[in-house]
Design a protein that fits this description.
alpha+beta, Cyclic Phosphodiesterase, Chain: A, 4-stranded antiparallel beta sheet, 9 strands, globular
């Protein structure tokens, strides 16, 4: 099964982002826009994981979550990967105070280490972690600078990331995400 570990922003926070993104979609029909129901902050993409590894993975993710405090972050300005001039991904960056972002990076590293120990190593482990919400994708590199600029001033409401989710990605014509486990982070001091 295809899995990833993520934080899920609250519905009201996603609604704010939707209000900023919705007017942009009609002008860019060539992009594959992700729906609000699929917006999340990935901590670790795991790819294909066998059912036999699931119990160990759940145990390791629970341990990782219990070691970290929740963090207050917000969805912010637009961005693109690898660069706005030749991008395949349009995103909204996750922003917050420096200690919260450091905590988010530490949580992502801990989740990836737990997955590795459970036999489900993230294929992108070792890459610099850049927390974001993916808004749209393109099969071919495209200049997304106008979209990045249109979202440059976006700053959503702050929210407390308090729970880690293990999510199964169902591919095909009707893409769907299903939570197969969740673990609370420690309450902030």
């Amino acid at each position: 099964m295809r899995l990833f570990v993520a934080l899920l922003p609250p519905h009201e926070v996603l609604a704010e982002l939707e209000a900023a993104v919705a007017p942009l979609r009609p002008g860019w029909p060539g992009l594959r826009w992700a729906g609000q129901d699929r917006w999340h902050v990935t901590l670790a993409f795991l790819g294909e994981v066998s059912e036999a590894r699931l119990d160990g993975l759940r145990e390791r993710l629970g341990r990782a979550a219990s070691r970290h405090q929740g963090v207050q972050v917000r969805i912010g300005r637009g961005g693109a990967f690898p660069a706005a001039a030749k991008a395949r991904v349009l995103c909204a960056h996750i922003e917050g105070e420096a200690p919260a972002l450091a905590g988010l990076r530490a949580l992502a590293a801990s989740v990836a280490a737990g997955a590795r120990r459970a036999g489900a190593p993230p294929p992108d482990e070792g890459r610099r972690y850049r927390p974001h919400v993916t808004l749209a994708r393109s099969r071919q590199p495209v200049a997304l600078s106008p979209l990045v600029e249109a979202l440059s001033g976006f700053s959503g409401s702050a929210w407390n990331a308090a729970q880690v989710e293990l999510i199964r990605s169902q591919t095909g014509p009707q893409r769907r995400y299903d939570s197969v486990g969740s673990w609370p982070l420690r309450a902030p001091r």
